[in-house]
Automatic annotation (TrEMBL):
GO terms for molecular function: iron ion binding; oxidoreductase activity. Keywords: Membrane, Transmembrane, Transmembrane helix. The keyword Membrane applies. One of its GO terms (biological process) is lipid biosynthetic process. This is Fatty acid hydroxylase domain-containing protein. The keyword Transmembrane applies.
Length: 318
């Protein structure tokens, strides 16, 4: 099939956007890049730009954005930027900085590295942690229960990377970057670069970047396969932004998914996504309570729907 000029242009947008992000943080006016709100503005701008691209050159009609999906995505984007970001700061980054100070660790060498090397190192540190956290989530039931809601999404869109159980969103945000004295603009450039990659990796945009990009960075092809409905296809391509890690650790798989979701493709509400990890416990409690009730009352306590889903979730995690 011949590639149209529009396709070829769109295939180059992800690398071009990374170039824009890096140039902004490297050469942008100091008053802008050092502004305390800079990252708070640039991160959603990236998502908005890619959402607009979905409207211009969509990948699958079945993933087309609608009001319900948009509002859910918006809820999680705000949750991540506020509550989750605050929790990460208080429970992870500040304790790490305190630990570093109490141990007398100094990492001034980090800020003396070339700027681009600092960006690359921040990306590698964050992605290395996320890769193994993601693999753990797919291999150990307590962690899977936090990650399964992200796999229950039934379509992919630009902000879907932020959709998931809040415990998962917190776990995936953990990193050791706070232990190093990197230049702040290098950290922000790294965060925005990973933002561009992972937002495109969830977006309904017909953009398939060239191999010199997709060898290193996760694309929608890699990640849509990971979101497939069949269990085997989800056991690969764990890299959030650095698909290179899957190539190194033997979990890379070529392919692409169109039908995405978990098991019976049941779309979970925000409430169901939030309660998902606790569902088995709630179920056990209901069974225990029903067992204590007199026989006549048993018929009323029939948690069939929840049981079905829990069984399916446990199977996927096995
Ligand atoms: Zn996953
Ligand atoms: Zn995903």
């Amino acid at each position: 099939m011949e590639t149209s000029l529009k396709d070829r242009l769109f295939n180059l947008i992800p690398p071009a956007m990374i170039a824009v992000v890096l140039s902004f943080w490297a050469f942008g006016p100091r008053s802008l890049v050092e502004h305390p709100w800079a990252l708070t503005v640039t991160s959603p701008l990236i998502v908005i730009a890619i959402l607009l691209l979905e409207a211009v050159h969509e990948r699958h009609a079945g993933w087309r954005m609608n009001r319900r999906e948009f509002l859910t995505d918006l809820y999680y984007s705000v949750l991540s930027a506020t509550v989750i970001a605050w929790l990460t700061q208080k429970l992870s980054e500040e304790p790490l900085v305190a630990l570093k100070a109490s141990l007398g660790l100094t990492t001034a060498w980090a800020s003396h590295l070339p700027w681009l090397a600092q960006v690359a190192m921040v990306i590698f540190l964050i992605e290395f942690g996320q890769y193994w956290m993601h693999r753990l989530m797919h291999n150990w039931t307590p962690f899977w229960l936090t990650h399964a809601p992200h796999h229950h999404i039934t379509q992919l869109n630009a902000a879907k990377g932020a959709v998931g159980n809040p415990i998962e969103l917190f776990l995936i945000s953990l990193s050791v970057v706070a232990l190093f004295d990197f230049d702040k603009t290098a950290i922000f450039a790294a965060l925005n670069t990973m933002g561009v990659i992972s937002v495109f990796a969830h977006a309904n945009v017909r953009a398939d970047p060239p191999i010199w990009y997709s060898f290193f960075f996760t694309t929608i092809r890699h990640h849509s396969l990971h979101h497939s409905t069949d269990y085997e296809s989800t056991r690969c391509n764990y890299g959030n932004s650095l698909i290179l890690l899957d190539r190194i650790f033997g979990t890379y798989r070529e392919g692409e998914g169109i039908l995405v979701g978990q098991d019976d493709r049941k779309r979970l509400t925000i409430r169901e996504q939030t309660m998902f990890p606790f569902a088995p416990m709630i179920e056990k409690f209901k069974v225990w309570r029903a067992a204590k009730q007199p026989r006549g009352a048993l018929a009323e306590a029939s948690p069939a729907d929840d049981l079905d889903r829990d069984a399916a979730g446990a199977k996927a995690a096995a």
